Automatic annotation (TrEMBL):
InterPro entries: Gfo/Idh/MocA-like_OxRdtase_C, Gfo/Idh/MocA-like_OxRdtase_N, Gfo/Idh/MocA_Oxidoreductases, NAD(P)-bd_dom_sf. Pfam families: GFO_IDH_MocA, GFO_IDH_MocA_C. SUPFAM superfamilies: Glyceraldehyde-3-phosphate dehydrogenase-like, C-terminal domain, NAD(P)-binding Rossmann-fold domains. Residues 5-118 form the Gfo/Idh/MocA-like oxidoreductase N-terminal domain. The lineage of its organism: Bacteria, Bacillati, Actinomycetota, Actinomycetes, Micrococcales. This is Gfo/Idh/MocA family oxidoreductase.
């Protein structure tokens, strides 16, 4: 069987990583790259840098990776759908819900595989966490809290921190819990002189009653990527920078010291950091999409799921503007 012919549009900070992974992918040949801004990182190799998505389509690709700025996702994706080309589009799926809905409908109507690059789903720590929650290792889940903080990235110019970093946490939370959001309330701040927010605090509710909290900013000198899930039997802590998963269990040993015991709801138990395999998330994401294009069972982030994430992000932005909790249709 001939290898799949893959194309890449967008050769910026993320595009260079997609090019590297596509070249390493079994059963795939990277045959065309495009970027109207050229090739700043020198990733094209011996391939001609094509000017736009239409030239990429004309090169005869089976599927395309779209890594252009968010504001161009909808136009590029719709052109690929019209041409019958499967596509994996970087997150967020689109700049707004209208564009995200249009993409989801276009790929579905054409019977094409369309996916969104919510890479955190492929982080080994979160994949292990989801499996353990599904197996009931935490019992009833009460709360999912995330912290995603770091310096401002020069690569982002067309969306704020909610739609860029925040969509990671929105998607991974709904995916880990296997429950959609029903409401969000948020507050934002604008501290770096840009038109878009660079800090957000979001409180949400999932359909099963899980309370969520997300602290996200581009204002911290340190980088932090944590997901904390608290439930009936203890707490899981996933550090996605290191792909580590740690479990803090509720203790079964009664605290004998009365002055200490009266201040604690649960007692301290064992702490276990799991030894888990740590493949590169970006490669796992591409392998899943390749398999989906080949018609094999694959765990991809569908465009409908990507649309739902954009809708939650927009609800958070609306809440910050109005000061009101925003209900989300499930």
């Amino acid at each position: 069987m001939a290898n799949l012919r893959a194309g890449l549009i967008g050769l910026g900070m993320m595009g260079r990583h997609h090019a590297r992974v596509l070249r390493s992918l079994e059963g795939v040949d990277l045959v065309a790259v495009a970027d109207p801004g050229g090739d700043p990182h020198g990733v094209a190799g011996d391939l001609e840098v094509l000017p736009d998505v239409h030239a990429l389509i004309a090169a005869g690709v089976d599927y395309a990776m779209v890594a252009v700025p968010t504001q161009f996702h909808t136009a590029a994706g719709l052109a690929l759908a019209e041409a019958g080309v499967h596509a994996l589009i970087e997150k967020p799926l689109a700049k707004d819900t209208e564009g995200a809905r249009a993409l989801a409908e276009a790929f579905e109507s054409k019977g094409l595989v369309g996916a969104v690059g919510h890479i955190e789903r492929y982080n080994p720590a979160l994949q292990s966490l989801r499996a353990r929650l599904e197996a009931g290792e935490l019992g009833d889940v009460y709360q999912i809290a995330t912290r995603r903080q770091g310096p401002f990235p020069a690569r982002i110019a067309d969306v704020g921190v909610v739609k860029d970093l925040g969509t990671h946490d929105i998607d991974l939370t709904a995916w880990v819990a296997q429950q959609p959001y029903t409401s969000v309330a948020a507050r934002t701040a604008f501290k770096s002189g840009r038109e878009f927010e660079d800090l957000v605090a979001i409180t949400g509710m999932l359909s099963g009653g899980i309370v969520t909290n997300h602290l996200v900013n581009w204002l911290s000198p340190m980088k932090e990527r944590l997901t904390v899930v608290t439930g009936e039997k203890g707490t899981f802590l996933a550090d996605t920078l290191l792909a580590d998963l740690t479990f803090y269990s509720n203790g079964l040993v009664k605290t004998q010291w009365d002055d200490v015991a009266q201040f604690r709801g649960v007692s301290e138990g064992d702490v276990v950091r799991f030894a888990i395999s740590k493949p590169e998330p970006l490669k796992t994401e591409h392998e899943a999409f390749r398999d989906a294009v080949l018609g094999k069972p694959a765990d991809i982030v569908t465009m409908q799921q990507g649309y739902a994430t954009v809708a939650v992000a927009e609800a958070a932005i609306e809440s910050a503007k109005t000061g009101q909790t925003v209900q989300i249709e499930v």
